[in-house]
Design brief:
The longest helix is centred in the last third of the chain and has 14 residues. By secondary structure, this protein is of the alpha/beta class. The chain has a four-stranded parallel β-sheet with strand order 3-2-1-4, with helices on both faces.
Length: about 170
């Protein structure tokens, strides 16, 4: 992470770290910012802010009713809530989403017969706005065909509760 902060962004252009937020991240890396600590045992749900979810999972799905039960069970290993959007499904996707206890918010686009007509950017923005109402500490976006192994789910919960820096975004290798 330090390398990424110090890297020159444009050839012959801005100096290393010359972007908004660089100083905040550098201070956190140097230990200047207090870290929030939460003790987690297994998959215990202990949010940092009382009453707020620690991890919210964003999910856009179209015609994925057959994959949803397994996906949602996988997401339950690390997420406190799921904010989902049924992107015009013609199957039972919406019903499955609304019936699952982990899905706190289920949005829907109009039903359409073909895959064309969806808009990934608009969908993601709708999900982020809906998730903001729940005030989660962290948000992760996954697809219906993605699964997180149990050991990785435990590691993810521990990481976001104990080591993740609030001023950073993280990406994970698949």
């Amino acid at each position: 992470l330090t390398w990424a902060i110090q890297k020159v962004r444009r050839p012959g252009g801005a100096r290393a770290g010359a972007y908004p937020g660089a100083a905040v991240i550098e201070n956190q890396l140097a230990g200047a910012a207090p870290r929030k600590r939460v003790g987690l045992v297994g998959l215990e749900r202990v949010p940092v802010r009382e009453g707020a979810p620690l991890v919210a999972c964003l999910l856009v799905v179209r015609n994925g009713a057959d994959q949803l039960p397994d996906a949602l069970d996988s997401f339950a290993q690390f997420a406190d809530v799921v904010v989902a959007l049924d992107d015009g499904s013609t199957d039972d996707t919406g019903r499955v989403l609304r019936a699952h206890p982990l899905v706190r918010i289920a949005l829907a686009n109009r039903v359409r017969d073909r895959d064309e007509g969806g808009h990934a950017g608009n969908n993601r923005n709708r999900l982020l706005a809906a998730a903001a109402e729940l005030d989660p500490q962290w948000v992760i976006a996954l697809d219906v065909d993605e699964r997180i192994p149990e050991s990785d789910a435990i590691a993810l919960r521990r990481f976001v509760a104990n080591d993740a820096l609030a001023a950073c975004a993280y990406a994970f290798q698949r």
